[in-house]
Design goal:
Largest sheet of chain A: 7 strands, mixed
Structural class of chain A: mainly beta
Largest interface: A-B, 29 and 23 residues
Strand content of chain B: over 45%
Radius of gyration of chain B: 13 Å
Number of helices of chain A: 0
Shape of chain B: globular
Oligomer: heterodimer
Radius of gyration of chain A: 13 Å
Distance between the termini of chain B: 38 Å
Number of strands of chain B: 11
Largest sheet of chain B: 6 strands, mixed
Order of helices and strands of chain A: EEEEEEEEEEE
Order of helices and strands of chain B: EEEEEEEEEEE
Helix content of chain B: under 10%
Number of strands of chain A: 11
Strand content of chain A: over 45%
Chain lengths: 112, 110
């Protein structure tokens, strides 16, 4: 089945540790995105990539890093510099930047 | 500054009635808009979109209206069903990235 897969669904980490969230798609989409959702808030854009080996910062990129070495994969690293990392993280992809995006099921990260 | 705004955090309607969800945007250069539906602990799913060359787009029970002069769009759901209860996000698509509003929680009562 074609789709976009995020893993794991739940993730727990100790404060001060870096953690990497996985996002893989087999839709042959060019563009990929990472969003963060906090309770009572909308989806805020962290990073996005329109092509392999290229990515841009979104509105809240501080404390995060990404890579786009393969078209299918867009992992997000939450670093220890991110002050409030506990959140629900959503990955998305689209055929081009100006079409509808398809989302993964999300990863809930809890930092204790 | 919020470029896409959904000023109503919640909406409650009776089953069978119309649900109207509103969205405002600030940048007149935005030319493509989307609505997504989201259940708790899941990713959003795409519902319907509209390009700025149109003022209406319809898909079954869902209709999106765009008023470019007012920089306003709305999603109409007719008739509303209990399964429509979810959070609805409006999004704009400028410069190849999606910008979302804060979301409106719709509750459809049986």
């Amino acid at each position: 089945d074609g789709g976009i897969t995020q893993s794991p669904k739940y993730l727990f980490r100790k404060e001060g540790q870096n953690v990497t969230l996985s996002c893989e798609q087999n839709l042959n989409h060019d563009a990929m995105y990472w969003y963060r959702q906090d309770p009572g808030q909308g989806l805020r854009l962290i990073y996005y990539s329109q092509i392999v080996n290229d990515f841009q910062k979104g509105d809240i990129a501080e404390g995060y890093s990404v890579s786009r070495e393969k078209k299918e994969s867009f992992p997000l690293t939450v670093t220890s510099a991110q002050k409030n990392p506990t959140a629900f993280y959503l990955c998305a992809s689209s055929l081009q930047g100006d079409t509808e995006a398809f989302f993964g099921q999300g990863t809930r990260l809890t930092v204790v | 500054d919020q470029q896409v705004k959904q000023n109503s955090p919640s909406l409650s309607v009776q089953e069978g009635r119309i649900s109207i969800l509103n969205c405002d945007y600030t940048n007149s250069m935005f030319d493509y808009f989307l609505w997504y539906k989201k259940y708790p602990a899941e990713g959003p799913t795409f519902l319907i979109s509209i390009s700025s060359i149109k003022d209406k787009n319809e898909d079954g029970r869902f209709t999106v209206f765009l008023n470019k002069s007012a920089k306003h769009l709305s999603l109409h759901i007719v008739p509303s069903q209990p399964g429509d209860s979810a959070v609805y996000f409006c999004a704009a698509n400028p410069s190849s990235k999606l910008i979302f509003g804060q979301g409106t929680t719709l509750q459809v009562k049986p």
